[in-house]
TMEM14-domain-containing protein
Amino acid sequence: MSAHPALTMAALCIVGGVTGYVRSQSIPSLIAGTGVGVIYGWSGYQIRSGGNYGYEGALAASVILFGASVPRAAKGPIPLGLTIASALAGAYYAKTVYDFRFAS
């Protein structure tokens, strides 16, 4: 499987968190963006190196990001895009975890 979605989401979250901080001095944006980005980055590294729980970590980061971004989705194109990206990444990693754990 591929680590690219997790690593891409890591970059998006970190850039988004820093951008939110620069534009509005929002410390919660900085902390949340970099925090979720670090989880995605760790997950991508685990997936790429064959470590444990990489897919589960990426799924957890997707669920956290989706839950945090849904209430803000109507505020503009960037929150909406983040909501859609987290939903797509979550669906990908949910299927991957399901196939790994339960499919024969």
